[in-house]
Amino acid sequence: PLGRKMHTCIISCYDKAGKNGRKEQIEQCSQQCQIPYQTAGNATQQEITNFQNRLNRAMMQCNDDAQGMVTPDMQDDPRKMKRVEDSLLKCLEGAIQNSNGGLKPMRQRIESHMS
Question: pTM for this one?
Answer without folding.
Answer: 0.75
